[in-house]
Fold this sequence. Notes:
The chain is an alpha+beta fold. Among the domains are: 5-63, Helix Hairpins, CATH 1.10.287.610; 87-181 and 234-331, DNA ligase/mRNA capping enzyme (D-amino Acid Aminotransferase, Chain A, domain 1, 2-Layer Sandwich); 336-411, CATH 2.40.50.140; 525-595, DNA polymerase, domain 1 (Orthogonal Bundle); 609-686, Rossmann fold, CATH 3.40.50. The strands form 5 sheets. Strands 12, 13, 14, 15, 16, 17 and 18 form a 7-stranded antiparallel β-sheet that branches. Helix 23 links the parallel strand 21 and strand 22 (674-675). The longest helix has 23 residues, at 5-27. The structure holds nicotinamide-adenine-dinucleotide and zinc ion. Nicotinamide-adenine-dinucleotide binds at residues 21-22, 24-25, 31, 33-35, 38-39, 65-66, 84-85, 121, 123-124, 128, 144, 180, 238-239, 305, 329. The active site is at residue 123. It is an enzyme of class 6 (ligase).
Amino acid sequence: MAVPDDDVRRAAALRERLHHHAHCYYVLDDPQIPDAEYDKLFQELQALEARHPQLRTPDSPTQRVGGAPLDAFAKVRHRVPMLSIRTETDIEASGARNFDARVRRELGLAEEAPPIDYVAELKFDGLALNLRYEAGVLVQAATRGDGEVGEDVTQNIRTIGQIPLRLADGAPPVLEVRGEVYMRRDDFERLNARQREKIAAGARGEKTFVNPRNAAAGAVRQLDPQVTRQRPLSFFAYGWGEVTPVEQGGPAWRTHFEALQALRGWGLPVSDRVVQAHGADDLVAYHQAIGRERDGLPFDIDGVVYKVDSLTLQRQLGFVTREPRWAVAHKFPAQEQVTTVESIDIFVGRTGKLTPVARLKPVFVGGVTVTNATLHNEDEARRKDVRVGDAVIVRRAGDVIPEVVAVVAEQRTHAAPAFEMPRHCPVCGSQAVREEGEVDWRCSGGLYCGAQRKQALLHFAQRRAMDIEGLGEKLVDQLVDAGVIRVLPDLYRLGLSQLIALERMGDKSAQNLLAGLEASKSTTLPRFLFALGIRHVGEATARDLARHFGTLDRVMQASTDDLLAVPDVGPVVAESIHTFFAQPHNREVVEQLRACGVHWAESEPAPQAALPLAGITVVLTGTLPTLSREEAKGLLEAAGAKVAGSVSKKTGYVVAGTEAGGKLDRARELSIPILDEEGLKSLLAQGAP
Ligand SMILES: NC(=O)c1ccc[n+]([C@@H]2O[C@H](COP(=O)([O-])OP(=O)(O)OC[C@H]3O[C@@H](n4cnc5c(N)ncnc54)[C@H](O)[C@@H]3O)[C@@H](O)[C@H]2O)c1
Ligand SMILES: [Zn+2]
């Protein structure tokens, strides 16, 4: 039968594209398209070749394993070829039944013959390794390469802590262990964070990795073992290559499961999720159970693997070109897919962080439909150069939020402008600020900003700020969601009827809240300054500001230079305070709060040195008879002292109550004066001698 021209051309085009992508993936460790995309092309070629066997060339990607080894490494000829595994493309449970049916057919079993025993394992998404042990000692580690010839990566593999350099007693004279080297998800996230920092600091030749498999492959195929050492890799053993034969004293394994137990006994890591399965039903159950567990696993898997357990049956089934007939990989939905960016929006978080988010053409990835993916921050978005209209690779693995990992460069058809981070908050229009040394832009609107309102209210109400009794998270959600509170001063305009109208709000709690609000109006300047939620202004800075300037108006009018004169206030903090009060809407909020009756005692600005305990550090330990820890701290700080958490040579006094521990011992060691509560009180009254 003649092959239609179209099919000939399509097959050639597919072969060329697959060759190109296999080279990028296996040889360069730099995949350009997601696996799901590659698999689609691969299956299309397989189908064409099945229809027209004449199209099947010996160099077709469907006939080969992996990629050629790199010249940079010494080559290793595998004594037993390292094959691939056939993929069951039906990702439903029926995939397991297809495999079972095929095995039974190939073994010529009658329908009523008993179920076959299998082993079910995780399909780790990493890189295959062959570890050769002679007399129990690791002598060589090699990559799979093209299945016949791999790369010698022994020096790199020696840096992986989980791979024993010497096996426990009893291992056969020759043992080749096959397994997967992979990177845990948390290690991957940390590595990429480090890489981003290096890139930000201007390091050349550094890059981030698209996924843990890619990071693991890059680390294993490093020319410098020192670099591999810094990349956290893990390993699971799932099979073997050459092993001393039984006649020469080798192991007499009868089943795959038994062999894995032996490997574990000699010190090799074998996953504890390897199970024996009886017939197709057990395989289906395993597939379902692992599918549910997948997101919670600390590493990526792209499916499960089923293997015929009996080694006799395995031999009977044998191999096709690149795959054993006794095993199959049953995949899960891919964790990476290609889709199109429809727009890039800015999401404003509860704390004011601005995050660029790609709105996507809906895509099914990692088991869910994804419509948005984070671009993290300005630098990431620019580095990846994501633009509206681009085809992008989206990754969703585990509980991590979906992420755009790369642009599919070969598919950019037009040139939308490069992404620009907006200079104003899209929610409230306030100035956006990116501080020196920070990666994030933030809205400076604080409580004025709709996105930050709930967080700002909670911060405002907390005990250490305005101390509003009865205003918790649930109520804040209700008040903001119902539109009752739009700006902060609305809080002090709440009426009983409005509150009672809220769901689950009784008369009593409404009364209590109103009383709490009323009581909070009488406050102190440091509390009020802290409550405003100005970035970088914590309690200590608020106190310093109050002490230095004495009145709120002076703080609000202060220039950055004036602010820099406050002890412990640096340029970033000064700038943040200045920006906050420079914005009319923030001044408006302050005015309205005052108009609602929020008040405090103001004082003249106090020069630091005038305070009796200025410059003195005090450490508190144990329980005092009448003063609480907070009260003692407040009194000391009001007198200008610094309260520290640990005793050092710089400590001026240690105030010790009952059950004082190590701090007291340390004070004695350093001969630091120790005071009880009485001593503290007289110190406060008289100042330091
Ligand atoms: N994105 C791209 O451009 C691109 C290019 C080429 C290949 N790929 C991807 O590579 C894969 C195909 O490559 P492959 O031939 O290496 O097949 P494979 O990775 O799908 O399956 C074979 C491999 O599975 C591994 N494995 C993991 N757990 C195992 C277990 N418990 N038992 C046995 N083996 C286990 C072994 O390393 C083995 O070599 C596909 O997922 C494909 O999408 C992607
Ligand atoms: Zn805002």
